[in-house]
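INTERNAL AUDIT FORM
Audit reference: QA-55
Scope: verify that the stored structure record matches its stored sequence.
Auditor: D.O.
Record contents follow.
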Amino acid sequence: MEKFYLTTAIDYVNGAPHIGHAYEKIISDIIVRHFDRRGRDVYFLTGTDEHGVKIQKTAAAAGITPQELCDQNAQKFKDTWALLDIKYDKFGRTTDPVHKKKVQEIFRKLLDKGDIYKHSYEGLYCSGCECFLAEKDLTEDGLCPVHNKAPEHVSEENYFFRLSKYAGRIKEYVKTAVKPEWRVAEVMNFMEDLQDISVSRSTKNVQWGIPVPNDPEQTIYVWIDALSNYYTQVSPEALGSAAPSFTLWPATVHVIGKDILKFHAVYWIGILLAMEEALPESIFAHGWITIDAAKMSKTTGNVIAPADILKSFNLTEPDVLRYYMASAAHAGKDGNYSDDDFKEKVNAHLANGMGNLLNRTLNMTEKYFNGKVGENRDSALLAAANETVSKVNGHFDKFEVAEAAHEIMALVDMTNKYVTDNAPWTLAKDGDMEKCEEVLSTVLKVMETVSYLIAPFCPNIAARMANQLTMGAKIEPVFLRLDSELADKSAKR
């Protein structure tokens, strides 16, 4: 079978996971589950980025060691992904011993090759981004556009990577690999007058990190440390007995946020070219999630944890949050979360649309035909269902998760209209049982397709749908409206 190896960005453990982190992991999990159902050999890597000055300072302020802080917060990410049914194959941490060893090997290889060299440097450094910024990267007010803060002026002797040497080959890669395709121009603009990049920091400023081989006064910087995790974490040494039967590298797709696209599409690709390694097939950059149309910020206090959403709506499983987040934004665009919109869309799409359609069809089948119908069906609606499968597959091939969800719901809407137009209850009342049976059999067959397609988004709900469609399970709502009394009672039991 064809391999499908997906990686997510690794989350910085300076704080706890929020809904923005969750968005990336949810859509990644859905993508992997989809391709698994299509028969691909799937592997899903996620993890945490655990080095740098922010970890160092936060740990010191808390009176604990950097490693203790990393251990505490890495566990918070693991716990949250478990709560959201994120089924990764490996959770890699940049403090893993094998990762640290492999990073030093990469650094040494590039140093020996002459692609890393020592150089005195003065520049503008953003502690929030943990990177140096050029004047052209700043706002008109001279601020970092991401953190809205003025960068520090830093003077150091560091090791540099000859990124400019690989500019031509990186540009050729970007043209075909960056997704969505409309982001290619953005990366190309960034690459104008591409400069070499610093790949180490002085230990006077950054102690918490992987030491540069044979130079204890320098710490390996994030570009070789964090970015290399996609490669080091699936090395034979890192996987050991847990290695799959197929070769993992290169990655099929890196799923990352739009704010770190340039680092993955330019810096990481340059490093891989210098290593003479195969390049990832695609880099998919998703947008951000805002809260009530405002960017999340600790300062404004609008950072939301996924666990809090589940708790506030008395949800005992994450399916509806997974569906809502996955359908919140078109591929690469920003999305928004609000409590009101969450309740409205979940009720409309999953409870009223999909769930009610299944429930009333099953009840009519039980009432009129003792739960068993023949296979005489409406070919037009079945053809539409098959076409939906093709459309959904096409969207996933381009990592268009929200668009795939919209196709599934369009099929549900079409099927609801089919039921309304044909009114099987009226057919039964008029004694036209043959046509009534055809309508119900058609809808049940379409719902099998819906159950199959929605499973990566809502695995628990889809499993209940599949069980009821076997005609052997007890007929009950697969999902209750968020504002229903029954839902509240169910959650409390």
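Auditor finding: record pair retrieved intact. Residues 116 and 313 are 53 Å apart (CA to CA).
Action required: none
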